[in-house]
Please model this.
Amino acid sequence: MAYAQTTTPTTRKQSEIWLIGQMSDSFSNTKLPSKKEVMTLFYHYKTVHKQTVREACHSAASDVLEVWEKAHIPTRLKKHVIDKIEDLFKDYEKLRKNKENKAKRSETLKAKEETWRAGLEDLFDIAHADALELIVIKEDRQFLLAQREAGLRGKMGSVGSSLARRQSNALKRQEDYRKRLHKEKQE
Model:
């Protein structure tokens, strides 16, 4: 079976995206992703992996949800995250099309571009509507609030040893329970 060979841009100029910056193939492990990070990852999938817009949105959404899951913050459904990435891309495309029309380069359009570029530094917020009520751990709630501030204040630490122990014990109990159910069915 032959696999499609992916070609990566060879220079920074080729990987530069107008208003967004350089493409990236990953997120920071200590913060929730910003809109800019999501767009750079989206374009990585779209350009380097030659995915369609919907496929690139799907791939980027999987990566975004993984980071949010690591932060233990309840999120929207994946289909809503995909739609949000697609909407961000559509907004970008509108600006890009107007950029190419030199006759329409008004001050209003330039202001829209600058506003959109400034908004890229904001959190790509996919938290569940009731996330602050659903989060049990106080530090997780504070982390989400800090990430929503300008500049994405705060960082994720490593998983505490007690939390890791509780999670592994819970997984072990679930596996034992499944084994008991399976054994009962066989008898």
Summary: DSSP finds eight helices and two strands in the chain. The first strand starts at residue 16 and ends at 17.
